[in-house]
Amino acid sequence: MSNLADHGVRSSRGARTAGALALVLGPAVGMGAARATATAWRSAGCLLLAEPLVTGLLLYGVLALATGRRWRWAGLLALGVLLAVATVHVSLPTPWARDATEVLGDPVLPWADEVAPCAHPEVPPRGTVRVVTWDVPEIGLGSRALAALADLRPDVVVLTHLADSGFLETFTAAMPGESFSAGPVGRRIGVWIRGTFQPCGGEAAAWPHVISGPAAGDLLVVSLPAVEGVGVFPLATFQASRGSAWPGVVREMTAALVAVTAFGGETLVAAGHLSAPASFSAPTRMLGTVGLRDLGGPPTWPDRVRNLPFLTVHRMDRVYTGRAWKAHQTLTQSVAGPSRILLVQIGQEPRFLESR
Known about the structure:
Layout: H1 2-37, H2 42-49, H3 51-67, H4 71-89, H5 112-115, E1 129-135, H6 143-151, E2 156-162, H7 165-174, E3 178-182, E4 188-193, E5 195-197, E6 206-210, E7 219-223, E8 225-227, E9 231-232, E10 235-239, H8 248-264, E11 269-273, H9 281-289, E12 293-294, E13 304-305, E14 308-309, E15 317-321, E16 325-333, E17 341-348, H10 350-355
Parallel strand pairs: 1-2, 10-11
Antiparallel strand pairs: 1-17, 2-4, 3-4, 5-8, 6-7, 7-10, 8-9, 11-15, 12-15, 13-14, 16-17
């Protein structure tokens, strides 16, 4: 009889230990696995998109346990929530790569050899560049949106998933500079610069690369802007959508950006809408390996849901740069629609200037 009692006690202790481990490690293991596989599995990507909601539900569980005076379990679950949040949002720094071409395979961009000779002008860029990227809402855009963009005093504007190209034309007419748009009707990417686009090897001044079929609008466009007072530098603009190819399109877009670094070099600037939260670890890891740094910034999505204000929790819009640049300022501005405008002001890295 005593043996049965001892066995029951041991079983009870084992169950409690297993429960404690599940509360402390379970959320972190789940989120860590999702972060590691987010670009390969749609379910993992969706879990990271829903991470703020999942965190809220877990905190509700902590409150429920505390209300029931189950302090030990509430403390264990609270510790598990902290570990899960850290697993998703804390990243180890990626050192600059010595040579980006060492980690690249065959180039995936058919025009890379054409653009490469022009991507490194004799005079490197100098001064600051104000880069604005905005995932344009599907609602009508008016004077308020034009004024908001103009007030940011941009040097480069990237408008993704642009439903109406007329907005880009109106902005270009109001702001001295040049612009172009590319992609399918209703899902175009528009780019404006305070300066001129430089051709290379012919009349073309922009080189597009379609990621997941022409109709989807997932594409990357490389150009060579000559910004007034700054100079020429390679610019990669991109847009990805959460369509049927998501999240694989995020991985393919990242691979295309990696290929651009083979000729873009230290002065490369990349900006656009990646359609993936910053918790997707693969893009930052892959791009960091070849010398592209995510300059960060506040969350940009969702700003509004059905035209009602909403808690903005994810940074879908990105600005990456080569080692010649560093961020001076990052901010967002709410205008209309589901996303906020992201502004990143960049300038030369002192070590880059010294090496020149």
